[in-house]
Amino acid sequence: METVDILIVGAGFAGLRALHTFRSQGRHALVIEASDGIGGVWRHNAYPGARCDVESYDYSYSFSPELEQEWRWSERYATQPEILRYIEHVADRFGLRDGILLRTRMASAVYDEAADRWTVSSEDGRSWSARHLMLCMGQLSAPKSPNYPGLADYRGEVLHSGDWPNKPVSYAGKRVGIIGTGSSGMQMTPVIAQQADHLVVFQRTANFSIPAANAPVTEAEDHAVKAAYAARREQARNSPTGLGFKPNRVSALDASAQDREAVYEAAWNRLGFGFALAYYDILLSRAANDTAVDFIRRKIASKIDDPVLREKLMPKGHPFASRRPSVDSGYFEAFNRPNVELADIREAPIQRFTPSGIETAAKHHDLDMVILATGFDVFTGSLLKPRIVGRRGVTLRDKWADGPTSHLGVAVAGFPNMLIVCGPGSPSLLSNVLLSTEEQIDWFSRLLRHLDDKGIHAFEVGVEAERTWAEHIAERVRETLYMTTDSYYNGAEVSGKPRVFMPYSGGVRGYRRLLERCEAEGYTGFDFSGGGSAAKAARPALASHG
Ligand code: NAP
Description:
Layout: E1 2-9, H1 13-24, E2 29-32, H2 41-44, H3 65-70, H4 80-93, E3 100-101, E4 106-112, E5 117-122, E6 127-135, E7 157-160, E8 175-179, H5 183-195, E9 198-203, E10 209-211, H6 219-227, H7 229-237, H8 257-270, H9 286-303, H10 307-313, E11 326-328, H11 331-334, E12 340-344, E13 350-354, E14 357-360, E15 364-366, E16 369-372, H12 381-384, E17 387-389, H13 396-399, E18 418-420, H14 433-454, E19 460-461, H15 463-478, H16 508-520, E20 526-527
Parallel strand pairs: 1-2, 1-6, 2-3, 4-17, 6-18, 7-16, 8-9, 8-16, 9-12, 10-11
Antiparallel strand pairs: 4-5, 5-6, 13-14, 14-15, 19-20
Helix pairs in contact: 1-14, 8-9, 14-16
The site of NADP nicotinamide-adenine-dinucleotide phosphate has 25 residues, from helix 5.
């Protein structure tokens, strides 16, 4: 059995950054990756139209000024192939490939209490002994497929947006169905509409979407960003979501109708995802949110010719951004094409698949191909697939049966020497996830250095610290509209999943300050004595940071 200092699970953005960082510290780090290539979600979500809705210059690594200067993004919002090229480039540029084992899916990780080490085993029977286990398994890595009657007998092709085949897919001359209108479904719709003979979009919940305002990056823009990149990164780090936008300090309700219209118009044309920060209280007050909803609905309405379709495509019943809105490039306009049809499956639900298509309560749709853009078991799906066993034989699945718990979103009581990157309890999907990833990994690297400096064998967080963090997450989310609707933020995307708000909504700057304070105070909430005495860990003091 090979022995390593750190076993990193997953070779996406997080796993590669962790490998580079821990190697730079002189540690023996190894990444295991289930698939046959690196890139994580950016490898698997290769569906047509896939692109990031965080600006390229912000959705990129910040650890190397040389890399920042060398890489040339071609568009304001990079496509999936360009992001994957960037990831491959980083792996080569920093010599990471020899630290990654592909086609190696973790089956189990078991903590050996006597040795204070993890034994990690792959599905094909190999195993490693590691002092630390770092889970970089992604939040959107467990695709979720509906289980409609007759699906197994359907004779056409079935694809999932999150498990896209690694080969060209042709839509020409085909009747294609897309189930799901989240970011993935909304991104692929206009692209497939241009190629397919006929496209049916099966919509259960109409989603809000802001136009991407994508454009090629000019030489002058590239030069300007690179001349002041450090300042741009600093601005992103100190913005609530890590996107660089500062919320408007004015309440949407205090602005005059005329000013509000102008602010929303500017945000609509330029900010994409940042529209939610056009006023600071859009996500805090239903009345303020209603002003944004009114504006967005008018904008969407103006894009759709047919009045019946217009009403069906109009998001309703939930506040804007309480569920993840999309950033699209021509989604609503696609429904003006004669070959695109909307199937409102809230009104006429899918009854079954037939060998030749999908039958709803209203009609039968003949389809050559069905694309499931039905999302993921978010936050916990990938973490709970393998068998992770902590102290006294308790599995992470058992430990999280009522919802994920952690101290600061980084570590779990009963699972010593285990760290989670961008998991539940951290800003994660409520932020520029790449920025959050890097900030956590840098903090982890300082934690491990602290352990080395002090000759500490093992760390563990206490249950009291977990309770305090859970209370803090709940307290922060109560200030917002996030719990007023069902979403994958609160576990509603999978039936039977505990209804707990999972990410941390206090912002990346506030979160970083809490991590820094924990560190400055000698890692409050952590126990360094080993031997199962973590419950003694001090109750950490928390304060709100907006
Ligand atoms: P999603 O947001 O969870 O959307 C899934 C869609 O499928 C929803 O419309 C959902 O309807 C529908 N659905 C789920 N189960 C269904 C069923 N049994 N029958 C009919 N419809 C069903 O998933 P996603 O679009 O893949 O996006 C997930 C996340 O990935 C995004 O929110 C974003 O964070 C990330 N992402 C990012 C980008 C980007 O950066 N540009 C692109 C794509 C994805 P309901 O709403 O009614 O549940």
